[in-house]
Request: fold
Amino acid sequence: MAEETTPQGAPPAAPPAAPPATPPAVAAAPTPVEAAPPEQKIKVRKPKQRSCDEKDAKGKLCAGHLKRWYDYPKEVEARIGRDAEIYRCEFCKTLYKPDPKQMPHSFTLRY
Reply:
């Protein structure tokens, strides 16, 4: 029977390699509460404009319907003013001020 022996000049077997150190913890992405909301664009409506004319990064036209926005948040009120007539695109959420040449639609149907 042959016994396995290590030669006397050979170093002893190396201990198994330690697993590589774990990378440091990557900073967690900010939670929605911490993240600042993206800045909303504010444009002026053209005469008789009813749909959004905003283009995306690829140059595609949004063409969303402009709807009157009555209960906007305090941040928008601080930028635009209190009780302002504001329209918002239903898709891209771009804000539009009314056309200064047109008569305002607020309080036009009084009886």
The longest strand covers residues 66-69. Helices lie at 74-80.
